[in-house]
Every structure is written in C-alpha cells, then in structure tokens.
Amino acid sequence: MKVTVENKKGLEKNLKVFVDKKTISGFMDEKYEEIRKDVVIKGFRPGKVPTEILKRQFGKAVYGEVIDKLLKDTTTKALEENKIKPAGQPKIDLKSFGEGKDLEYTISVTELPKVSAKGLSSIKVEEYVVKIDPKETDKRISEIAKSQNNFKDAQTNYSSKINDLVIFDYKASVDGKEFKGNEGKNTQLVLGKDLFIKGFDKQLEGVKSGDIKNVKVNLPENFPEKDLINKSAVFECKISAVRIPEEVIINDDFAKNMGAKDLSNLKDLISKQINDEYKNSLAMITKKSILEQIEREKLDQLPSNLIEQEVKILSQGMKEDEVKKNKKSLEDQAKKRIKTGLILNAFGEENKINVTQEEINVEIQKQFRMMPGQEKIVKDYYEQNPSAIDSLRGQIYEEKIIEEIKKKAKTTKKEISKEEAEKILKEENENNIKEQAKLIQIDETKNNKKKEIKTKSKETKKTKTPASKPKKVKKVSKK
Predict the structure, then answer these.
(1) 66 is in which domain, residue-wise?
(2) Are 131 and 35 in contact (CB under 8 A)?
(3) What does the alpha-carbon distance between residue 392 and residue 400 come to, in Å, rounded to a whole number?
(4) Domain holding 158: CATH number?
(5) Under 8 Å CB-to-CB from 59, ≥6 apart: which residues?
C-alpha cells in the first residue's frame, strides 16, 4: 500500500491510496481457499473444487467482499500511519478498481486539530463548603416529624373533624345497582386532604365509631369503569374507628424509625443531606467556571463539519426562521462547545482517563433507583439504543475529567452559610437568564440592522428622479 497526503485547505486533507493488483489477487486467493472448504458443486469432492470453477461462480461476490474489507482496512491504516484523527466519517472516492486491476482511491477527510491541554494547569477553582447551622437541621427534622401520620384512638362518642383519620368499610352503588370494584375494606382517610374522591371526606366530618354514613359523590374522570364516569354514586360507609392526630415525639425511637442509629446520628444524616443539596448545585457553578476558563484557551482552527453538526443539535425543536434569526449565536455556542470538548478530550488522553463498563453499570443502577418500578423500561432503552450508552459514557468521561482538573487546579476553599449559598445560586440563575436574553437581543439587533440596510437601499433606488438624467432638448427650427 502506498499513501500520498495532500493538504487541501486548513484541516481538509486528501489521502491518495494505491494497492497493487498482486496484493489484491493474494487476498482473493485466500478467500477462495476459505470458501472451497464449504462449497458443494456436483462432480467435485468437498474441498477439491478448482479455483477456476470458483471464480466463474463466485468471482464477483468474492471480489466485492475483498474490496470492501480492503477499503476499510487500508483507510484505517492510512489514517493511523499518518496520525490523522478524522472529525467525522471520511469520504472515499474510487479512481481505479476491478478484477485484475490495481486499486486506487482518495480519502477526503477533515482532520481534528492538534490540541494541547497544558494551559489547564493554570486553572483556578473556587470550591464552596456550606456550613449548616444546627437550627436548620432541627427545623428539617421537625418538618419530617410533622409529615409523619401518627394517630391515636379517639374517646368513645368522639365526632370526627378535619385532620382526623377515619377507618371504614364501604359498599357503593349507582342507581341502586352494584358495579365492579364497588367494595372496600379497612379504607383509611385523613379528613381534609381530599385524596379519595372529590368531596368524599368532607361528608365524613362528624362521624363516630360504629356509625353508618351514606356518602354521595360523582365518580371521577379517571374511574376504571368508563360507562360510570361522572355518574352519581352512593357509598354506604361503616365507620370502624376514628383516630386523632398525635404529636410525634422527636427522640431516639423516632430516629430509629427513620433508619438512623439514634437522634444524634439522624441529625448528622440530615445535616449531610442539606449540605449535599447545596453542594451539588454549587459544584455546577464550579464546573461552569472551569469550562469558561477552558473556553478562553486559544484554538485556531475548528472542523467546519463539526460546527454544522453541533448547530443542528443546538437548534433541535426550533423553527426554520428561528434558526436563521439566531444563526450567529448558535454558531458561537457550537464553536465554544466543540473547542471545550476537544481540550477536555486532550486532557483526558494526556492523563489516561477512561470509562469502564462497571462505571456505566453503576450509573444505570442509579437510574433504576430514581425510577422504581420502571427498571425494565430503562434497561430496554439502553439495550436498544447504543447511542444512549455512548452519551452516558461521554457524561461520565467529562465528569471524571472535571474532577481530575479540580485535583490539579489552584483551589480556594470557601466556607459559606446556607443563606450565602442560596444568594449565590439565585445570582447564578439570574445571570443565566440575562445571558440568554442578551444572546437573543444581539441576534435581533443584527437582523433589524440588516432589514434597515435593505429598506434604505430600496428607498435610495426609489428616490432617483429624472432630474439626475441628462434632459433631452427639443430642436427648434429657425424659420
């Protein structure tokens, strides 16, 4: 194989590849030997069919298969030997091919630019540590305690009221007729929450243990029996118990019910939980700061095909006129993302960072826990969408790179209060909104200027009067 590299323009390259017919013939003979073992042709013993017979019957198919494999192998080898990393799929243009001929073809490729990540050693990182006031922890535990349904039996002849728990059996009917699923045993309702059927628990106010109460309601839109939707139903309720709310005592027993060892341990866990809530959000600000510093790194050339692809991704869901209106800002965003990605990838390669299958599995397991009952849907999604696995691998890869950058960066740790953390997050959110608005405004201003120039141009054409042209003078004859 002979390869000649031609620089076209910028990152565009052409590689001329030549493979002589003798080499191709050798691959063809290997393929014939391979198929000879299995082919069965009348009049010949297995494995003894002459090559000429095989050529007549399978020549075109064998040649096609050999050339396909040869193109893949030689293209890969040509790029590797010349240390060219393609930005996208290379294009192949066959110049000369055919049985008994040399193979000549051209690889047109856009090369990824040479990138160095040495500049990342000067990155500065500000990490926030949120100090949680013990009062905040106590407040959160108190809120958890209030959310716990804790009830005690009411005294005899006690009439139920809002926030009480009523326990009852019921049998329902529509127009005096029973229907499928019309019975319920040991049903429990906390009055005032209206969680069963709208207006149902309001009618249970004032009931006592042992009462029978008929409750009339309209069956809801989501009722399983479609022909009964919005129909009036009567629920005959037999009240078995009325229980009143009991204040939850925050002690070691309460903590154990919450899965902690004791109250002190629960406070530690809740304090960590509050800290983590802010830590994750503040970590995103730190990451944004790192990415902004990377964006300031210089990179002279970017592959035009990658910019086009990135613009398509950024403009997904946008109408055609919106894409045209925001073309400049979309291209600017695309360039920033590509440049950042290339520099991060260079850092990853220099520091030998990679993603293992185990790390991908751990991330998928996290998604299982976030979507209980839908594990099979998540599993099927990743099994049927290899691109989703690639995307997940990319996310993990980026996070690992960011963490490695943090380790090597000049880090300043800043301890802040919960209130300060909330202020920082609020300001960050407001800045993001302003940035988006600014980008939109810039594009609108540019478009308005273009329209203005066009309008002025039209007006200029219209205001050209005949006075600007030389007048035709009538000749008067002298008589």
Answers:
(1) 2-110
(2) no
(3) 12
(4) 3.10.50.40
(5) 99
